[in-house]
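User: Predict the full complex structure for these chains.
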Amino acid sequence: MADSSHGAPGTSVTVATPGRELDQFENPGLPPHRPRLSDRSRSAEKRAERQVALLFLISILGTLLFFVGYFFIPLNETVERLRLQNLLLGLGTAFAMLGIGVGIVHWAKTLMPDHEVTESRHEIRPESDRQDAEKIVNDILDESGIKRRPLIRNTLLGAAILAPLPAIAIFRDLGPLPGNSLKQTMWDTGVRLTRDPSGTPILASDVTVGSAFHVIPEGLNEVENKLEEKAKAVVLLMRLDPEELNPSPGRENWGYDGIVAYSKICTHVGCPVALYEQQTHHLLCPCHQSTFDLEQECKVIFGPAARPLPQLPIEVDDEGYLVASSDFQEPVGPSFWERG
Amino acid sequence: MKALSQRRRHPLAAFALLLMALLVTGGLYAAASTANEAQAQTTTFTADDVEEGSKLFSANCASCHGMGATGSQAAPSLVGVGAASVDFQVGTGRMPMQMDGPQAQAKPVQFTDEQIGQLSAYVASLGAGPAIPSEEILDASEGDASRGGELFRVNCAMCHNAAAAGGALTQGKFAPSIDGTSEKHIYEAMVTGPQNMPVFNDANIAPEDKQDIIAFLKTIEEQGSPGGADLGSLGPVSEGLFIWVAGLGVIIAFTVWLTSRSS
Amino acid sequence: MSSSTATPTYVPKTRVGKVTDYVDSRVGGSGIVKEFGRKIFPDHWTFMFGEVALYTFVILLISGTFLTFFYDPSMAETHYEGSYLPLRGVEMSVAYASSLDISFDVRGGLFMRQIHHWAALLFVASVAVHMLRVFFTGAFRRPREFNWVVGCILLILSLAAGFTGYSLPDDLLSGNGLRIIDGVMKAIPVVGTYLSFFLFGGEFPGTMIIGRLYVLHILLIPAVILLLIGIHLFMVVLHKHSQFPGPGRTNTNVVGYPVGPVYAAKAGGFFFIVFGVLAAIAAAFTINPIWNYGPYDPSPVSAGTQPDWYIGWVDGALRLMPGTIGNFDFEFMIPFPWGVNALSLNVLIPALVPAMIVFTLMFAWPWIEAWVTKDKREHHLLNRPRNAPTRTAIGVAGVTFYCVLWAAASSDLIATHFLVSLNDVTYWLRFLVFFGPVLAFMVARRIALALQRKDREIALHGRETGRIVRLPHGEFIEVHEQVDDYKRYQLVAFESPEVMVPTPGADGKVSLLDKAHGRISRFFFEDRVAPVTPKELAASHGDHHDEVAGAKDRESIASH
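Assistant: Here is the predicted structure of the three-chain assembly.
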């Protein structure tokens, strides 16, 4: 083992430890070549030839099939027609390609020489090359004088470390700084709860027990950065028997007669927690299965989320519509470092 | 038999045996499940008014829902659930329930349309509730499929999947696939909120909006997928499984053929 | 070929010779022909997966180029007016609308989209299988360590290529995927929020992300992949391909077919085969039906939201991690002098730890194994997986770990399709993610050792023929048929390393590192099956009745 540690390929295949060579089987060498059917019989050879040609013909037909699909199947806004065209284009291409591929391989397997050939391996580089290379590199280093002139070396090092910094800094304007934006949403005192996506306001009496409304703040459809605001402001509105809600002190008036509104953005990584089970009063996130219990102020009862869904305090305005009493009392959505 | 024993050491023997075992297990399972279905058939009655419905109810439903449908430990009161609820639950075979479980599942319908009408009439007479929808509102060709699609994605897709293929809920419950569900049953499910499904009353989703949703569902059900077989519309997992099993399987078969010596 | 003998007086005689001479005297092509024209490549079906990866990459470039001509990576708002009726009039981004146009209004566009996506799945799958082949056969050993590392980088790049492409249609499914990425990014301490704002150009989802991913997907990542493929193939040529041990095959030769014509024909034909298979799949099977998902909107979500299979394991890890265990909360509020900061370990651990473990082990494995075996020789002969039981078992454990995490990413589908509780599936998979790999390790190692024993049995006593013979004194025996020398050599040509016992150093003490090495060496090689030696074979022949298999039988076996 030691003598081959510089990388020369070993000579014996099965040597485990020196001195055991006698316990090894001799390599019997390549097995005798066995002629194929097409080598032995002229008719088999002819047959293989015809098969290859047939496969190439199939390929030609495949290409024609593609053109049939492309030119003779006009699309007419129905899915059926598109499906047929896609099928013909795909099958045409498949036959065109497989015909050529299978044909060539069949040709190689049956008609091209099948004698296995042995080639010897050589060292990747002879040792003398390595010696020469080492000498050349050392000469280059010497001639450059980089070892003898530490002032040059150190200043170059400093310059080389600093030079890439602008290349990083120039990406600063990829985006604005977060500022306070993750802590605020469109909700505010008196903002009406409206249906998603139509934006029509919701009367408290519309929300019957067992209902679930998907809610956006009034005016969302008109704001400029609609998706960004929607990504924070979407809310799920549900009505339970008031007896089943157990609000903690200070949150008793965040709902209205059993109607409660919770942020739809999961506190795990931000999927919409939209699955409401109206009998068990559980909310389930379809992405990672975090489960929140409405009866315990949306405490996490299963899954990877660690925080309850934030509740939106709501009340009813003079006309009987549901409105927010304020913005959320904590940031919605997944945690972030500055969340605090 | 002799030929069989001679081939038992064939390289493919193990696969053949495995295949046989799988077929036998599958066959037994299929036989067992059809046997269960057969046992679940119940006798039927004939009559056509609330009175008859009341009789049907006493015979088939009262053991759980109580005499007068006022509910019991085992099942909720049906006073005020409306005719739509009965028509949905019985009409899709969910009621009478086959066994206790996380939720009642659709199965072959146990009653004739006439009997379902009678049961609905009886329950509706107990208290006001959602009625069976009219034919006009169920006409999918009158709805706007793309508007329905938007409403479906906001209100329904999170449980039922964007292609209505169904999805999982907690503790063994699930939202079923809507593929093949009739217009009437889709509408009734929305207004009554069966089991854990929330109620989508007319103030939440107006009847015309419900019609749009039905139009959307019927459109995607009828047209199928433009790209060919839809692999269950289950998303990237079924696509990944397909490429690993079928795609890579075919490729491997080709590599084996390609590197084997011709005979 | 005769034209490549470059003597000054060379005058080409054939037409081929004239063409080569013309080209060679201008670009020096004869050197390439000399080097590659008759280069030998060994043939084995498991050696083809790298080619599958290369060919799918070529197909990705071709189909992807077509798609770029019609795709518009803009997140500006528009209303769809194309042919697909269930989406007509719906508000959406230009990127999504152009993806729909490719699918419904460009002839062949749907086919191109489908073949592109199927090819992407097959690309990553074939890269993975290729790496598994290299791992299980020990082809990463000296001198191929660097090429293994290049391969690992290629795997990571192919994941990146897949993920950036997955998001481009700006549909609901991929949009929710991006939202998850955003959530994971925000969980990174100190810089997470800034990273998210820089990537998305402001608050999620913003109007920049699709354009940025597009540049990464069509320019940066494919360029680096191409470069690394070049390096990868260069090293393959430099090292010459490895081969399985067998009669005539040694560590110092390569046995196989010459590039011209057989190997080139097979490899070239195989490109068309891969293309044809993908075309057939794209013809008949839908992939990524973006028309079902609808445009991205932060409010809706579809049941069964998962990423493509190669990112699925990270999603599975996110699902398995509990947010709290009992009263222990994985989200910490750390008080600092300037205020309280949040640290979400319930997101960070599953998103980073499994990937870190897997990739660290993957990159370092050639050196880890070299340290364990203390084997610094060059290896051009591969191991059959059974002949390296511990390595094989570790690989199987890794595959099991991946499969459990991918199953976790489909926990909801498992629940609905096998009618079990979603919560129970999660509990089971939480258990399996830790114990599954251990169990798989033990089972795989036992199977490998058992197969080695079976090989020994066959090498010593031959093959069972199924022929039962009754001897004159009444004993029944099954006749065994000796295998021929070539077959036997295949069964005995391997090394079986033994446990290395730590030896005291110059100071007479065994260092801690050596002790650790001794323990790990014991773990690797304690259970071993040695190859049959000629002596053992001779000894076994003495006590057998199976010498009926005479010279005639042997010949017939040899010509199988």
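Chain B touches chain A at residues 150-151, 154-155, 158-159, 167, 169-171, 173, 175, 193, 195-201, 203-204, 223-228, 257-258, 261-263 (CB under 8 Å).
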